[in-house]
Design goal:
- The chain has 338 residues and is mainly α.
- It has a single domain, classed as Rhodopsin 7-helix transmembrane proteins (Rhopdopsin 7-helix transmembrane proteins), CATH 1.20.1070.
- The protein has 11 helices and 3 strands; from the N terminus they run H-E-H-H-E-H-H-H-E-H-H-H-H-H.
- A 3-stranded mixed sheet has the order 2-1-3.
- It is globular and about 65 Å long.
- The N and C termini lie far apart (93 Å).
Length: 338
């Protein structure tokens, strides 16, 4: 009997060993499942994603170009907006091309390294984005509530320092998470039940205890997003108090319109993102899988599409500079052609 047990252990180790070695090989191929259960809607999703991706690329590129070229747009708000536009391009470009490939051609394969690179960029970009939204809310608070001290408080050095701290915070928070997940042993299925390499979907392929990385993700996201939301809410409460203290009705309506659109974009970023995190942690057996995937997709695709419109085109200065740039570019090409 003991000889039989020894033989079974040896056989088991021979079978499991190669599997672990194979799955830890960085040349391994994973497959993204897309949105399970919604295959019939893939054509509509392909068209919608392509349109939103085009709007996001064109809009955010225009904002970066206009702010970079125009020396009059060097206020802190525009600097934060420029960085936000760059993060939007990185965030949406990390996921949408592969999604379109899955929905349109069925090419769902992704290498092990590409999967973890995508995971890192997605999570780091979202962490940077939430910090930038907080910085922009603080900028509006100073501009509206302390207008006489605006240039003294938000100096170029302070603006640069805030941007650097936001990026360092995101990198510091997300690097350990990516390291923990990439060093887990993977076995069994190589199909990620998601449309991109989302953290909670990837760790389901592991055959080791994934609780440390899952807990780190939950706690880290809750602290970063939770603290940012609290400070953003406090900023807008103080802004609204100052707005309702204005004597001009038109000034009140203009400020409320601007604040309302900003809050709307923030809600579209924060609500699906946080709901997605907590559903994946607590309610994955209650909420259908396709709803979980859609929620995770929404907060990566919709904000980069709307941010150029809400933060950029609603700004009179950026709108005028953008039209001027487009007219010069179009008429310049026409003159060259003639």
């Amino acid at each position: 009997e003991k000889i039989l047990q020894d033989c079974m252990k040896a056989l088991s180790s021979e079978m499991v060993g190669p599997l672990y070695n194979h799955t830890m090989d960085t040349s391994a191929i994973l497959f993204l499942a897309g949105i399970p259960g919604l295959q019939s809607s893939y054509l509509f999703m392909t068209i919608s994603l392509s349109v939103m991706y085009t709007i996001a690329l064109v809009g955010n590129t225009l904002i970066i170009t206009v702010i970079w070229m125009d020396s009059t747009l060097q206020e802190p708000m525009y600097c934060f907006l420029c960085v936000l536009a760059a993060m939007d391009i990185i965030m949406i470009s990390s996921v949408v091309p592969k999604m379109v490939s899955i929905f349109c051609s069925g090419d769902s394969s992704i290498s092990f390294n590409a999967c973890f690179t995508q995971m890192y960029f997605v999570h780091a970009a979202t962490a940077i984005e939430t910090g930038l939204l907080l910085a922009m809310a603080f900028d509006r608070y100073v501009a509206i509530c302390k207008p006489l001290h605006y240039k003294r408080i938000l100096t170029p050095q302070v603006t640069l320092g805030m941007s650097v701290i936001i990026i360092i915070r995101a990198v510091t928070a997300m690097t350990p998470l990516s390291w923990m997940v990439s060093h887990l042993p993977f076995c069994g299925s190589n199909v990620v039940l998601h449309s991109y390499c989302e953290h909670m979907a990837v760790i389901k392929l592991t055959c080791a205890d994934s609780m440390p990385s899952s807990l780190y993700s939950l706690v880290g996201s809750s602290i970063i997003v939770g603290s940012d939301v609290v400070f953003i809410a406090a900023s807008y409460v103080l802004i609204l108090r100052a707005v309702f203290g204005l004597s001009s009705r038109n000034a009140q309506l203009k400020a409320l319109s601007t604040c309302g659109s900003h809050v709307g974009v923030m809600a579209l970023f924060y609500l699906p993102g946080m709901v997605s995190i907590y559903v994946a942690w607590l309610g994955q057996d209650v909420v259908p899988l396709h709803i979980q995937v859609l929620l995770a997709d929404l907060y990566l695709v919709i904000p980069p599409t709307l941010n150029p419109i809400i933060y950029g085109m609603r700004s009179k200065q950026i709108r005028e500079r953008t039209w001027g740039l487009l007219i010069r570019w179009l008429f310049g090409h026409c003159n060259l052609g003639s």
